[in-house]
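If your schedule permits, I should be very grateful for your opinion on a structural question. I have a record of one protein: its chain in single-letter code and its fold written as C-alpha cells. Would you kindly read the sequence against the C-alpha cells and tell me how you understand this chain to fold? Thank you for your consideration; the sequence and its C-alpha cells are set out here.


***
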Amino acid sequence: MKTITIIIIALSTIPALAVTGDVVGTFATPYSCPTGLASDGKHLYLADRKSDKIYTIDPGTGTVIAQFDSPGFRPQGLTFDGIYLWLVDSEEEVILQIDPKTEITVKTIWCPAQRPGGLAWDGKYLWLADSRTDELLQVSTEDGTTIKKIPSPSGTPTGLTFDGTYIWVSDRGADRIYMVWPETGEVILMFKAPAKYAWGLAYLDNKLYCADYQSDSIYAIVSDDDKLYSTTDSLREIVEYTHQFRNYGPGTVTDLNIYLAVPVNSPHQRLIEPPIYKSPVEYEIITDSWDQQVARFHFDKVKSGEMVQASYKVVVDLFDHRYLFHPERVGRLKDIPGYIKEKYLVDNTKFAITSKTIQKAVKEAVGDETNPYWMMRKIFRYIIDHMYYELVGGWNIAPTVLERGNGSCSEYSFVFIAMCRAAGLPARYAGSIAQRGDLASEDEVFHRWCEVYLPKIGWLPVDPSGGDQKTPQGQANYIGHVSNRYLVTTVGGGGSEYLGWEYNSYETYRSEGVCKIYSEKLGEWSPVETPQHTEAKQKIDTSEHKMK
C-alpha cells in the first residue's frame, strides 16, 4: 500500500492569489485505483476499486483516519447524504446505502445507469452519471426510479458532487470539470481538470476535491472566488491585415476611403507594439460613434486597371480568456449604468427590435426571468434551438433571419443583439481576424460574435453561432470565452459612420463612368517562435509610419 504524503501546497497560503479552477493543495491517494469521493462536511471518503476499500481521509493532511471493506465488488461513485454513504457497485449494478459508523449496508437499490460512474446527493435525491448514454440521472432512494434526466456536459462523465445549488461533473475524456445547472443541464462554467483522469469529486469548505485515477492523487481546487476570469495559454503571433481595392474600369474612381479598424489592448490580447501601417498614402486615426478607433486612408484617384491597398502588421500576445463566475453574482437590470443603457439599448436597421417577430421571440424565450445572466442564457438557448448555421451571403435584418431559421455568424449576432436589447439587456458585437487551424494560416472569412452587459460583471462575450452545438460543453464554451485564435479588431453597437455594418475594414468611394470594382480582405498569421518569424518581426519597423 502507498505511503501517505502530507499536503504539498499549504491551503492557507494560496486562495488570495488563486482563481476558480486553481489547485491549492494535493496529496497522494492511499491506493492506486481511486474512484468515488465524498465528504461528510469534515472528512473525505474515498473508494478504491483495486483494494476494494473505502478510506476516511483528513483533507488537510491526506492522512487515512480509518478504512473498511467495500460492500461492492467494483466500487465507483460515492456520496454522503448527511447520515449514510451511498456507493455504486458497477459489477452488480446496484446502489448500496452504508452506515459509516457500523460499516453495515442497510439498503440496496437497483442502479438505472447502463455504465454508472459518479454519484451525488442533492438533499432529496441521488444523481448518477451514466457514461454510456452521456446523461446525468436523478434517482429516487426508494427503489432506484429515475426522476429526471439531463445531458452530461460531454461524453465521459466520471465524478459528481453537489454544492447546494449546482452539480459539479468531472469528465476524464475532456479533462475538464463542469459546474452544471441541474434544472436543464446547462454548463455555467468549466475549467481544466488538475490531471489526466479526473474521477471522484467532493465539495467541502467551498473547495472541490478531485481524485485522479492516473496520478493517484487528490487535488483541492478553488470552486469560487472574487475574480471574474482567467487568462491562460499565451500565444504570440504576427498578424498582417490587408485591404485591397481594384478598379477594372473603364471609368475612374475619383475618391476612395479605406478604413481599417484599429485593434487595442484588452484582457484577451496584448499588443507588443502599436500596429504598423503601410500604404502609398498618409493615414489618420479617427473614432466613430461607438468609440471604435479607425485608420482612414484617402486615395484621390484610382484609374482603370489600378490596384491600391492599405495594411498593417501587429505583434500580439493572445490569451485563452474565460469568465468564471456564478450567476448569483450578477446584479439586476436596474443596476446597469444609464450611459450603457442609452447607447446599447437603441434600435438599429439590422435589429428591428420592435418587430412582432423579435418581440414574440423574447417573450417566449425570457418569460418572467429577471436575472440578467439567465435572461441571456435563455435567449442564447432560444436562438440555437430555432436556427442553424449557413453562410449564404448577405446580411438580412434580425426578424428576417429568425423567421428564415438560418444565418451566418453576423446574422446570428444581429438576432442575439436584437433579442437582448428588446429584453432590456445592453448588447453589442465584436469582430475579429481568425486563425484558421495552423499557427501560420490566413483568413478571408473572419468572425463576429456578441457581447452582453451584465451588471456587476461587465461586458461578457457570447457567440451564438459558435455555440450552436449539441453538447452542453460545446454550447457553454462560447459563453464568456474567447480563445487565443482570434485577434479582436472591432467593437461596435450598430452601423458605423466609417465601418458601416462591416468589421475589420470597410471602403467608400465615388466614381465617374462605369467602374467594375473588386475588393479583397486578407488576414495573415505567423507565429514568432521560428527564425523566419523573428526575421519577419524585424521587418516591422517605424519607417513604414506615414501618419499626419
Observations:
- The domain at 232-320+499-544 is CATH 2.60.40.2250 (Immunoglobulin-like).
